[in-house]
UniProtKB/TrEMBL annotation:
InterPro entries: Kelch-typ_b-propeller (IPR015915), Kelch_1 (IPR006652). SMART domains: Kelch. The lineage of its organism: Eukaryota, Metazoa, Spiralia, Lophotrochozoa, Mollusca. It holds the Pfam family Kelch_KLHDC2_KLHL20_DRC7. This is Kelch domain-containing protein 1.
Length: 371
């Protein structure tokens, strides 16, 4: 597709140093003026890699990182869980633990009392990791992921990684299970404490996938990219949570980002910002792509400042007039099936730059389009 010439220009700035250990596979969400990150894999003092149950937060007003001191016992350590905020509470589902395997537990953290509690609710998703979640009002929407499928055989796509992640061994109690990707949509109502699966009023459901991007623009869910049974993708899907219909007529204009997984998508006004990710050749991206939900156009922004190196698995949140990005991994080795670099930087973009500018009405060769 042809690039849409535009004058959108963003500039990366350095937000703060993180004094804590680098980590990968952490989940994150925004609560008030803070970006919270939970879990992930860190390197111990003995150079061993292990999951953690630490929670950190970054205050966008003071630009300071701190470790959250729990008042009671935290859930088991994990990576690649889903975390969303409703009110002053953080809701965490799923993830992967090297000892326990894929997790299907559900926990809530009260940011005011700093206490954890377990959510007991029937009919939720089965255990999985690399799913995504987002809150709209008092409801949290969960989509996709990868994990054991007890009754469904996994399609064989010839990918020995199975799940597009660097897990060394299958946990003992799940070795006999079949594994695969999911495309189910679950909703958790934080008022009634009940799970549901909305009856989707039309076809057009995204293919089963994991490590995709998910965000909410108004009352709509936006899903982009991720890894499915075929490969890494760059498709975009929109679900109206009020009509419960998938948009079947997304006639996108402009050039979309390259196919990727382990990226993030974030809503800024009616625009969706795509950052980072790992491509089909295991390369990592440092571009900034923007999708307008209003015009259904893709724009590639001009990027200035100290551009962060290409990466995936980063934590991103929009707080006030800032888009904050923390950490991530890069330098994937096909030999050991792992990323060899883990980042610990905290950088930011200004939302006014993301919302500013638009198509210039010129073709890439510089000639103005006919009126």
């Amino acid at each position: 597709m042809e690039v849409i010439e535009n004058d959108i220009a963003v500039e990366w700035g350095v937000a703060a140093d993180n004094p804590f250990k680098p980590r990968e596979g952490q989940c994150c969400c925004v609560c008030g003026s803070k970006l919270y990150v939970y879990g992930g894999v860190i390197q111990t003092n003995d150079a061993e890699m292990t999951e953690t149950k630490e929670m950190l937060n970054f205050d966008a007003e003071t630009m300071v990182w701190q470790k959250v001191a729990y008042k009671n016992e935290a859930p088991p350590p994990r990576s690649a869980a889903a975390l969303s905020c409703v009110g002053n509470k953080l809701y965490m589902f799923g993830g992967l633990n090297q000892t326990c395997g894929w997790l299907g537990d559900f926990h809530v953290f009260d940011t005011e009392t700093r206490t954890w509690s377990s959510v007991q609710a029937a009919d939720g998703p089965c255990p999985r990791d690399k799913l995504q979640s987002v809150a709209i009002g008092t409801k949290i929407y969960f989509f996709g992921g990868f994990g054991p499928k007890a009754t469904l055989a996994m399609e064989d796509d010839g990918d020995e990684e199975y799940e597009d992640e660097e897990d060394d061994e299958l946990p003992g109690d799940q070795e006999a299970a079949e594994f695969g990707w999911f495309n189910d949509l679950y909703v958790f109502d934080t008022v009634t404490n009940k799970w549901s699966q909305p009856l989707q009023m039309n076809l057009g459901v995204p293919s089963p996938r994991a490590a995709h991007g998910l965000c909410a623009v108004g009352k709509s869910l936006v899903i982009m990219g991720g890894r499915d049974t075929e490969d890494r993708q760059n498709d975009i899907h929109i679900f109206d949570t009020e009509t419960r219909k998938w948009d079947m007529d997304i006639n996108c204009k402009g050039r979309p980002p390259s196919p990727r997984s382990f990226h993030t998508i974030s809503a800024v006004g009616d625009r969706v910002v795509v950052l980072g990710g790992r491509g089909k050749d295991n390369q990592h991206f440092d571009d900034v792509s923007i999708f307008s939900l209003d015009t259904k156009e893709w724009y590639q922004a001009t990027v200035k400042g100290k551009v962060p190196s290409g990466r995936g698995q980063q934590s991103v949140g929009v707080i006030g007039d800032k888009l904050i990005m923390f950490g991530g991994t890069s330098n994937f080795s096909a030999e050991i099936m792992q990323c060899q670099a883990t980042h610990n930087d905290t950088v930011l973009l200004r939302t006014e730059d993301i919302l500013g500018g638009g198509p210039t009405g010129k073709k890439p060769n510089g000639h103005a389009e006919a009126s």
